[in-house]
Amino acid sequence: MNTRAQPGRRCGTEELVHRRDTLLPPGRPRLVLWRHGQTEWNVLEKAQGQADIPLDATGRRQARKAARMLATFHPDFIWSSDLVRARHTAEELAALNGAEVFLDERLREYDVGIRQGTTFAEFREQHPDVHRKFFVEDNYRVPGAELPSEVDDRMKAVLQDAAAAVGDAGTGVLVGHGAALRSGLLAFFDAPPHMREMFAGMANCAWTVLEKHPERGWQIIDFNAKTLPDASSVLADEMPGH
């Protein structure tokens, strides 16, 4: 599935372009993982899962503001979850650079099953046994939901496809959802699932930037960001991988 972006209009932010071009090394493949803007259910702390909840007024403003910065990366492609909150976020960026938004269901949020539409307190009250297992059992399937490992698999696959599509020096933007993006990030690097506790949740309309180092491969150079990243420094005491 895909939807044609609106004709691009100029960002008019020469300072951001200059900052990006002077601070980041040229010619490296780059992936930007961008979480959608705020929704009413985010404010209410309800699990959205794959419910098609739209951006609220704040979320639309967040998307427009973030898009102005991300447009300075001149993305070669924009892939988005087909859920409306991600799609409308992606379209703000597409409107600035004239790119086409390709919709990919693999970028959807977790299907959270019976958790959908509930807060954690409501989930605990309504389903105490399921709530307990959710927090203590590895790869537990909440009734009606995806397994965490199933989300890992689809997110890893779409990130690998994006890494292959970005080529030797391009930038790709993937627009998705907080929990699934965090799981996909770990899966992409073959990190064990328990390491997700090392990463705080991504804020609405924040992004994570991955760059491919010429010798070390893909690296996380920014996480949960709302500003443009500085260049990674070369450390004199850097140790080889082991």
Describe, in plain words, how this protein is organized in 3D.
There is one protein chain. The protein is of the alpha/beta class and 242 residues long. The protein has two domains: 25-111 and 149-225, 3-Layer(aba) Sandwich (Rossmann fold); 114-145, no CATH class. Helix content is 36%, strand content 15%. It contains eight helices and seven strands; from the N terminus they run E-H-E-H-H-E-H-E-H-H-H-E-H-E-E. The protein has helices at 14-23, 40-44, 57-70, 84-97, 120-126, 128-136, 148-165, 178-188; strands at 2-3, 30-35, 77-80, 101-103, 171-176, 207-213, 217-225. It has a seven-stranded mixed beta sheet, sandwiched between helices. The radius of gyration is 18 Å and the shape is globular. The protein starts with a strand and ends in a 17-residue tail after the last strand. The relative contact order is 0.20.
